[in-house]
């Protein structure tokens, strides 16, 4: 009964807690047991290591960019090299860090446990996904090492297909291959959610994290094949001088852009939807309240995925596309903001009258809500045709998408890593140091990117290696912010690694939170559950789950599943 | 190593396993629709821009071979469906028989494609430095054309050049333009049929595996998921060709 | 939830569909040789879509599949349609000059006595 337990407001595991005797990390030993694993949790760890590596690669390029931009006629690198820096920063970060990060690490680890299954539907394909990712990544690294890329991560033709002297071909092949990793992960998630749910786990009892990943997987499935064929065409054009995108043959560079953005716009929703899923788990936990408007958040995830496919040409407003087309895409772009706003309202309403604590995941979660809102609103500026004429290809755009991708997606990723760290490793990270790191990151982030809104508004173009001297102060602020931001990233890497050996043992449900994953051991068994759970409760039911150790919860009879799957 | 037909560890029931496999194949086919779809978009945009050049290019394809290939592939879809039926009704011996028929028909298709590709090579229609859409209108013997065919070819090229003429453009420049736009057509031709052929080769490999398993008597009413799912894949490849044939081979045939 | 429907389609149906498909192929070739102007492509694609529908419904058992499967098939085509329609919406509404070869000669500026140099 709940009266005998004193559910903590902050994680305070019992002094005598021990790690479970048997769990997925010690079930088998040796490098082969890791490299040939089909356990979704181990594959998640493999992805964690690889995406972190690519994060460093992208981060090094970002640092070089910011250092170079300290002075108006930057002396650090030549203009040609500068082009390579921003290109490689974008390619490494987008394709090899942001897109896989939450789905392949947290999604892989948690989705089967959250739905009460032993693994994903296709575990071997899951492992294959990781290897495909490595092959793609290796090719791209090879490209970086043998001449780099200077086309921008957008690979616009005919620069990429004809004129560039950089190592475009291995890079597009690498990204093409990496696309299949995404497709297979998305396929795996969709099938898993459809067919592997435990008894009683109906669609509307699923955690919103799962809904978010389902929506993301729809985008993986429907969008990634198009970038695959597009890059393949660009690569073939480059290798065999074909002419699809070459005006001298009657080809059309704008055709490339349509094909490219058909994927790459939904790709940004791939990057943000999973983070939104993480936030939907964190906010109710640290407000100790059921989430407000579950149905709307679930529906808005699907809405974002669908509407996100019909807005792509807002990246092409200045290409000479038809005015009518531009009008349509502008209108649709305004429309896509609506489901995102629905989520922000619902998260905020969840906080209202909640019992809020500021643990590290909550700090990341609150930071996400604020920064994503700013990023999203500035997207509306860009959706407006008249404004976009002035803001396109300026630092305003850069600030806009970094607010969403860093202030949003990466904070969601880090929040999720911290939130589920006890589950993944069985240990707690040092809470106070973690809060300091989160605040450092938040401050550093805003100092880096807010000046860029102003720079863009004042007219500083993006992808330029130099700038007029009057922009220097803002650029210096931005670089200063970047160094603080870097510290904010390094600190978690250090203390998280430290905690794996020396952190306090966490126990099953340290926060505590609802959700099936918190009923398993920390770390979980290889097969997740000793026996298949039967779900008899609604999600985020903080009021009626005393067995989880929730303050003030009262017992309630489990309700059998209602409705169909 | 699991034998085919056993329950894999992550599933609770065989039914769940079958459901997952079939759903997985359908979702994979959706990705293939979008994959080929990009090429179809490129085709549509370019044909919209250069209708005459596309007609000239299309008429250089051998209609008889294309027609024959379409028949062959549709027949192979039939034999594949029959193989699935045999498995569903536990006609164990018939399963590999129908699969072999499918494989033979598919191989015939690929063989004809090789013949066609070789022909293109001989006629200087492979995109690249040697590409010359006017080659056959100037080399009757090398292209193996009869007198009427040769005259038709010349007429077609002449009309194509006329259509390309912008104001104050010389004959030479218009010819270069026709060549450039016809090369776009042939790039798409090779890209689309090549990607399709690659899918067929993969399909052939899958069929071979199915045939081996079929000979062991593995497939019956209780267990026939691989036959069904590889069948879905094969039918999809057939559907792609159902569109490629009219789009590539039947552009301006009434003019030929 | 059980989606498993072992509805076995009879060979008679398969044979019928095969014959219809072959007739359709013949029809599309025959129609291609008649000059119908811009309706040629419409007719050819209509026949192709019909053939595809028959393959999906009968050879691929689409007609006998669960609602979920039908939804998945429909979504694939719907997304393809989005890509084609919205991209073509740009190209077909540009009202630009008819596309000519990019190799049109550059106009030379010949100075006329007394006239300005501008083209």
Beta strand count of chain A:
0
Following the backbone from N to C, one meets helices and strands of chain A in this order, namely: HHHHHHHHHHHHHHH
Radius of gyration of chain A: 23 Å
Q: What do the pLDDT scores of chain A average to?
A: 93
- Structural class, judged by helices and strands of chain B? mainly alpha
- Write down the oligomeric state: heterotrimer
The biggest beta sheet of chain B is recorded as: none
Structural class of chain A: mainly alpha
User: Can you count the helices of chain A?
Assistant: 15
Largest interface: B-C, 63 and 57 residues
Radius of gyration of chain B: 23 Å
CATH topology of chain A: Cytochrome C Oxidase, Chain A
How many domains make up the coordinates of chain B?
1
Q: Which short descriptors sum up this protein?
A:
heterotrimer, A: 565 residues, mainly alpha, Cytochrome C Oxidase, Chain A, 15 helices, globular, disordered N terminus, B: 256 residues, Four Helix Bundle (Hemerythrin (Met), subunit A), 75% helix, elongated
Report on the structure:
The complex is a heterotrimer of chains A (565), B (256) and C (119). With 565 residues, chain A is mainly alpha-helical. Chain A has a single domain, classed as Up-down Bundle (Cytochrome C Oxidase, Chain A). Chain A has helices at residues 31-35, 40-68, 79-115, 123-145, 159-163, 168-195, 208-240, 253-287, 294-307, 323-351, 360-383, 385-391, 395-425, 431-458, 472-502. The longest helix of chain A has 37 residues, at 79-115. Chain B is an all-alpha fold and 256 residues long. Chain B has a single domain (15-127, 180-255), classed as Four Helix Bundle (Hemerythrin (Met), subunit A). Chain B has helices at residues 14-49, 51-58, 63-88, 94-122, 135-138, 147-164, 171-215, 225-249. In chain B, helix 2 crosses helix 7. Chain B is elongated. Helices cover 58% and strands 0% of the residues of chain C. In chain C, helix 1 runs antiparallel to helix 2 (39-59). The radius of gyration of chain C is 26 Å and the shape is flat. The mean pLDDT of chain C is 83. Chain A binds chain C through residues 194, 222, 226, 247-248, 250, 254-255, 258, 262, 309-310, 312-313, 320-325, 328-329, 564-565, and chain C through 1, 68, 75-76, 79, 82-83, 86-87, 89-95, 99, 101-103.
């Amino acid at each position: 009964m709940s009266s005998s337990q004193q559910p903590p407001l902050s994680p305070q595991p019992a002094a005598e807690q021990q790690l479970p005797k048997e769990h997925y990390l010690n079930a088998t030993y040796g490098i082969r047991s890791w490299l040939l694993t089909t356990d979704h949790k181990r594959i998640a760890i493999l992805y964690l290591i690889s995406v972190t590596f690519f994060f460093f690669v992208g981060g090094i390029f970002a640092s070089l960019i910011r250092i170079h931009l300290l002075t108006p006629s930057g002396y650090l690198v030549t203009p040609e090299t500068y082009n390579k820096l921003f290109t490689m920063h974008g390619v490494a970060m987008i394709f090899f860090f942001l897109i896989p990060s939450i789905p392949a690490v947290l999604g892989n680890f948690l989705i089967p446990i959250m739905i009460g299954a032993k693994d994903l539907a296709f575990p071997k394909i899951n492992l294959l996904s990781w290897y495909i990712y490595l092959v793609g990544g290796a090719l791209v690294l090879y490209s970086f090492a043998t001449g780099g890329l200077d086309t921008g991560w957008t690979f616009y033709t005919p620069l990429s297909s004809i004129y560039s002297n950089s190592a475009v071909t291995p890079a597009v092949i690498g990204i093409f291959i990496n696309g299949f990793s995404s497709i297979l992960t998305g396929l795996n998630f969709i099938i898993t959610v459809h067919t592997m749910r435990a008894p009683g786990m109906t669609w509307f009892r699923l955690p919103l994290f799962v809904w978010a990943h389902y929506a993301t997987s729809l985008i993986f499935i429907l969008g990634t094949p198009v970038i695959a064929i597009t890059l393949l065409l660009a690569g073939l054009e480059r290798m065999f001088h074909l002419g699809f995108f070459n005006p001298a043959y009657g080809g059309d560079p704008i055709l490339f852009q349509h094909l490219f953005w058909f994927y790459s716009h939904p790709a940004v929703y791939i990057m943000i939807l999973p983070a939104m899923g993480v936030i939907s788990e964190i906010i109710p936990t640290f407000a100790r309240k059921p989430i407000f408007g579950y149905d709307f958040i679930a529906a808005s995830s699907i809405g974002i995925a669908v509407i996100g496919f019909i807005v792509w040409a807002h990246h092409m407003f200045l290409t000479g596309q038809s005015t009518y087309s531009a009008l349509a895409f502008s209108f649709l772009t305004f429309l896509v903001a609506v489901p995102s706003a629905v989520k922000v309202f619902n998260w905020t309403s969840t906080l209202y009258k909640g019992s809020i604590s500021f643990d590290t995941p909550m700090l990341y979660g609150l930071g996400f809500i604020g920064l994503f809102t700013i990023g999203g609103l500035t997207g509306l500026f860009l959706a407006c045709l008249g404004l976009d004429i002035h803001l396109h290809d300026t630092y305003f755009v850069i600030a806009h998408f970094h607010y969403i991708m860093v202030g949003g997606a990466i904070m969601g990723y880090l929040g999720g890593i911290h939130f589920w760290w006890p589950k993944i490793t069985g240990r707690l990270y040092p809470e106070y140091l973690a809060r300091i790191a989160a605040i450092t990151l938040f401050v550093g982030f805003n100092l880096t990117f807010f000046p860029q809104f102003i720079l863009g508004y004042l007219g500083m173009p993006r992808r330029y290696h130099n700038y007029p001297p009057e922009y220097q102060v803002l650029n210096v602020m931005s670089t200063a912010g970047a160094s603080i931001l870097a510290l904010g990233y390094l600190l978690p890497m250090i203390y998280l690694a430290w905690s794996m050996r020396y952190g306090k043992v966490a126990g099953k449900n340290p926060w505590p939170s609802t959700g099936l994953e918190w009923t398993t051991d920390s770390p979980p068994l290889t097969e997740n559950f000793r026996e298949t759970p039967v779900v008899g409760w609604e999600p985020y039911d903080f009021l009626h789950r005393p067995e989880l150790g929730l303050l003030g919860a009262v017992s309630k009879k489990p309700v059998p599943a209602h409705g169909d799957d | 190593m699991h034998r085919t037909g056993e329950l894999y560890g992550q599933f609770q029931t065989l039914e769940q396993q079958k459901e997952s496999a079939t759903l997985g194949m359908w979702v994979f086919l959706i990705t293939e629709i979008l994959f080929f779809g990009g090429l179809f978009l490129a085709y549509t945009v370019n044909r919209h821009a250069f209708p005459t050049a596309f007609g000239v290019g299309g008429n250089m394809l051998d209609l008889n071979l294309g027609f024959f290939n379409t028949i062959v592939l549709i027949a192979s879809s039939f034999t594949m469906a029959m193989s699935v039926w045999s498995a569903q009704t536990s006609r164990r011996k018939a399963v590999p028989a129908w699969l072999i028929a499918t494989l033979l028909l598919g191989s015939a298709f690929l063989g004809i494609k090789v013949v066609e590709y070789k022909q293109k090579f001989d006629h200087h229609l492979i995109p690249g430095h040697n590409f010359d859409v006017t080659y056959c209108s100037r080399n009757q013997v090398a292209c193996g054309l009869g007198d009427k065919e040769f005259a038709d070819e010349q007429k077609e090229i002449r009309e194509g050049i006329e259509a390309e003429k912008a104001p104050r453009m010389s004959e030479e420049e218009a010819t270069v333009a026709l060549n450039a736009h016809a090369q776009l057509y042939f790039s798409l031709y090779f890209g689309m049929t090549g990607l399709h052929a690659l899918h067929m080769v993969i399909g052939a490999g899958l069929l071979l595996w199915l045939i081996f398993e079929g000979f062991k008597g593995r497939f019956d009413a209780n267990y026939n998921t691989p036959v069904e799912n590889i069948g879905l894949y094969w039918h999809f490849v057939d559907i792609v060709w159902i569109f490629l044939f009219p789009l590539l081979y039947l552009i301006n045939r009434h003019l030929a | 939830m059980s989606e498993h429907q072992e509805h076995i389609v009879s060979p008679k149906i398969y044979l019928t569909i095969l014959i219809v498909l072959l007739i359709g192929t013949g029809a599309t070739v025959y129609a291609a040789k008649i000059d119908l102007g811009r309706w040629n492509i419409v007719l050819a694609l209509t026949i192709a879509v019909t053939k595809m529908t028959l393959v999906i419904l009968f050879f691929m058992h689409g007609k006998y599949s669960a609602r979920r499967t039908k939804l998945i098939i429909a979504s694939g085509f719907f997304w393809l349609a989005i890509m084609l329609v919205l991209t073509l919406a740009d190209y077909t509404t540009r009202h630009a000059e008819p596309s000519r070869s990019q190799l049109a000669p550059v106009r030379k500026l010949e100075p006329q006595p007394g006239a300005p140099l501008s083209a």
